[in-house]
């Protein structure tokens, strides 16, 4: 009888011990998930001061870093390109396509969202599905598409399509570059969109109290490109903010390390075209390949001059410099 | 009876469960990217490097005795200068006085000793480098020269800190001046070699520089070791496993994680830039803070890779550009060329490293010694005054130092004693009048 009571006592003791151990175990489990412990008071403060935070993506995202390099277009690419009708194409250094449309073609941008591929470009652009719409620059009438490797690659000269429209919004020419993936790291746990907003508000003071976050999206960005075009693309949050003066601006925050990218985005178009212009100026006729060019015997040197003239007017086009 | 059996089973289960849970908690390891573990654990320090103190890194480049009869002399053996400076660091200084007028506390009557530092130092560094009562408050000024009177009859203000650029002077008293000054004089007189004469020469802005005359210097050759760059990957990149490298052009390798880059030149030196941190902010850093955080940064990875007779000495502390530089000094003579191989430079922004460049070679002992005949001071002065090249330039400083260059076939490095001229673009080799200007420059440039 006494032994029975002791057993009951033991059962109760171990029951309590086990409950405690299970709680401990759960705790250590959870601490893994909250890799980046966030300051909840900071977040509350943020919610009180910045509008539009309820629409932020809330799930924990994972993404790899991508090592990419310039695509030197293969024979296959070139034959696909060659088959595109109504365009005279020039390929410089195997990696930049300049194309001129023989008769301008209308492209439909009316219902294309930012970050979505442009359906109407299918069959008019090499690998058109790999590029998504960024914006139309009203001053120069140039449409900017960013290459997309699962996520859009923001402001990268090596993965971009610039389409020149005429006054009737028809495509008259375009420039295209492409990157190929060389390597991919394992997937990394990224900071949430709200962390990016918090960086912009608390650390950088870029978002001010009363501003509204309009949009957030995950993409890729990087600052360093080696001369052979190889680069490491970092998962990056794009946070679009409307400030008190109703001006809208995109800000970029690294998704893994959480640092803000201080960069003058407005000059991207000008910089890119200037760089292409430099490439054209420095190239030799040996590095130029012509596809579907109508005239049989064309002077490549003359072609270069023509392209230089055209790019120069685009840059000089009052608009580019905002 | 039956209920007892049930209880036994329950108890056994509970005991078993508690065992399992205990084991599970003990063995539980959060799986935070296990692939990275090896790399994170990679040594983030130079195995051959060491740490430095502020006392040791702040040193004068020249120590000159101004004796009666307008005589300027100094030690033939530069290690004596260091000995003297260390002696001075142990003095107790008290009763600091600041004079803003620019008059009064200019200089002493000879004899006195002058210590010349290569860069302006904030006044509050005095408290770190010398022995000073903690309650002393120092003015918000700077200095690059220290004057110590050798006149035993002076009862106060034996030490003066002065900047060549401003009129502010700080003076202090020495505890037991007689003993301390006697000691200085003893150090001075104890030299076996006869002292070197310094010849004063006036450069830009009425500044006087002292040129050592008839110095016996030798050309030296060194074997060297490569300091591996690997630790820097861990120090400078947040996530070393994300870093890729590519050979930019032959012998030049670029490491990048997308936002930062480190360029490694021919296994000799490197330059790091954090592009994320490139926006210029208007934060204001005190000079001593700047030096402190730079020292901490380099100490943290044992970045002082000096050995034997050569060491790194603070050579620039620039508050406006937030840049701190340390120059290689061999036996008391600074190496003015080339900067890539002899200067450790750190630039800060937003409390983080913005740029870091440094040599990555470690010189062993000198194994070959040649005599080198240097131009004498008279011919230097006459060239500076007569050569069309130097006449048009603003000369800020003239000094004797070393030129460090690679020997033939990558086998060794060579230190050659050379005269250097400083203008607004920095230090450059002195070109004697009789040599054709262009040719010499180009030949040197290719190194």
Automatic annotation (TrEMBL), chain A:
Residue intervals passing through the bilayer: 6-26
InterPro entries: YycI-like (IPR018604)
Keyword tags: Membrane, Transmembrane, Transmembrane helix
Entry-linked Gene3D superfamilies: YycH protein, domain 3-like
Domain (Regulatory protein YycH-like) ranges: 54-255
Organism domain of life: Bacteria
Protein name per UniProt: Two-component system regulatory protein YycI
Organism: Aquibacillus rhizosphaerae
From TrEMBL, chain B:
Xref: InterPro entries: YycH, YycH/YycI_2
Database matches in Pfam families: YycH
Top-level taxon of the source organism: Bacteria
Domain Regulatory protein YycH: 4-429
Record protein name field: Two-component system activity regulator YycH
């Amino acid at each position: 009888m006494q032994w029975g009571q002791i057993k009951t006592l033991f059962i109760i003791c171990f029951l309590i011990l086990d409950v405690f151990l299970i709680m401990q175990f759960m705790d250590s489990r959870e601490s893994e998930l909250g890799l980046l412990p966030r300051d909840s008071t900071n977040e509350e403060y943020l919610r009180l001061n910045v509008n539009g935070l309820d629409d932020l993506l809330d799930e924990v995202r994972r993404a790899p870093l991508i090592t990419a390099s310039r695509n030197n277009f293969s024979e296959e690419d070139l034959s696909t390109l060659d088959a595109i009708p109504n365009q005279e194409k020039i390929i410089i250094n195997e990696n930049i396509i300049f194309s001129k449309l023989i008769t301008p073609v209308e492209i439909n941008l009316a219902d294309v969202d930012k970050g979505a591929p442009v359906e109407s470009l299918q069959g008019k652009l090499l690998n058109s599905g790999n590029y998504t719409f960024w914006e139309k620059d009203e001053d120069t009438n140039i449409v900017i598409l960013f290459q997309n490797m699962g996520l859009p690659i923001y402001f990268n000269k090596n993965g971009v399509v610039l389409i020149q429209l005429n006054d009737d919004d028809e495509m008259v020419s375009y420039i295209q570059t492409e990157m190929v993936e060389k390597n991919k790291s394992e997937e990394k746990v990224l900071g949430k969109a709200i962390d990016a907003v918090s960086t912009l508000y608390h650390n950088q003071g870029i978002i001010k109290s009363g501003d509204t976050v309009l949009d957030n999206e995950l993409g890729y960005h990087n600052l360093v490109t080696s001369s052979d075009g190889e680069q490491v693309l970092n998962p990056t949050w794009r946070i679009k903010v409307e400030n008190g003066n109703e001006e809208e601006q995109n800000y970029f925050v690294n998704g893994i390390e959480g640092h803000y990218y201080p960069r003058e985005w407005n000059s991207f178009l000008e910089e890119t075209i200037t760089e292409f212009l430099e490439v054209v100026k420095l190239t030799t006729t040996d590095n130029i390949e012509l596809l579907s060019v109508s005239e049989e015997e064309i002077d490549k040197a003359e072609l270069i001059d023509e392209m230089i003239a055209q790019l120069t007017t685009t840059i000089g086009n009052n608009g580019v410099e905002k | 009876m039956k209920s007892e059996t049930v209880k036994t089973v329950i108890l056994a289960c509970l005991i078993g469960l508690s065992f399992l849970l205990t084991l599970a908690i003990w063995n539980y390891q959060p799986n935070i990217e296990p692939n990275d573990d090896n790399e994170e654990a990679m040594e983030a320090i130079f195995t051959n490097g060491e740490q430095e103190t502020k006392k040791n890194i702040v040193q004068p480049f020249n120590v000159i005795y101004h004796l009666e009869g307008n005589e300027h002399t100094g030690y033939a053996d530069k290690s004596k200068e260091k000995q003297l400076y260390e002696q001075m660091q142990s003095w107790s200084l008290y009763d600091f006085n600041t004079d803003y007028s620019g008059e009064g506390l200019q200089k002493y009557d000879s004899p006195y000793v002058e210590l010349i530092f290569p860069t302006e130092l904030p006044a509050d560094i005095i408290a770190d480098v010398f022995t000073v009562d903690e309650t002393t408050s120092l003015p918000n000024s700077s200095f690059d020269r220290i004057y110590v009177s050798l006149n035993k009859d002076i009862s106060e203000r034996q030490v003066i800190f002065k900047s060549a650029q401003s009129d502010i002077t700080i003076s202090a008293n020495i505890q037991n001046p007689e003993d301390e000054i006697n000691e200085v004089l003893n150090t001075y007189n104890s030299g076996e070699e006869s002292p070197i004469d310094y010849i004063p020469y006036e450069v830009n802005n009425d500044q006087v520089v002292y040129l050592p005359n008839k110095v016996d210097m030798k050309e030296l050759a060194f074997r060297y070791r490569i300091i591996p760059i690997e630790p820097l990957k861990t120090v400078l990149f947040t996530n070393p496993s994300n870093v890729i490298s590519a050979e930019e052009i032959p012998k030049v390798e670029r490491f990048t994680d997308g936002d930062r880059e480190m360029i490694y030149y021919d296994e000799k030196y490197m330059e790091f830039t954090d592009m994320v941190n490139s926006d210029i902010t208007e934060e204001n850093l005190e000079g001593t803070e700047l030096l402190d955080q730079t020292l901490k940064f380099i100490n943290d990875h044992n970045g002082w890779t000096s050995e034997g007779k050569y060491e790194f000495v603070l050579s620039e502390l620039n508050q406006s550009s937030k840049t701190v530089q340390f120059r290689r000094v061999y036996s008391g003579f600074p190496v003015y060329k080339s900067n890539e191989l002899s200067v450790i430079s750190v630039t800060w922004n937003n409390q983080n490293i913005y740029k870091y460049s440094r040599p990555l070679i470690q010189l062993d002992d000198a194994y070959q010694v040649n005599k080198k005949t240097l131009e004498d001071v008279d011919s230097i002065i006459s060239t500076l005054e007569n050569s069309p090249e130097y006449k048009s330039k603003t000369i800020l400083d003239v000094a004797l130092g070393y030129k460090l260059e690679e020997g033939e076939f990558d086998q060794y490095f060579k230190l050659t004693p050379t005269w250097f001229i400083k203008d607004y673009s920095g230090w450059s080799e002195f070109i004697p009048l009789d040599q054709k200007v262009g040719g010499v420059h180009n030949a040197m440039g290719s190194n």
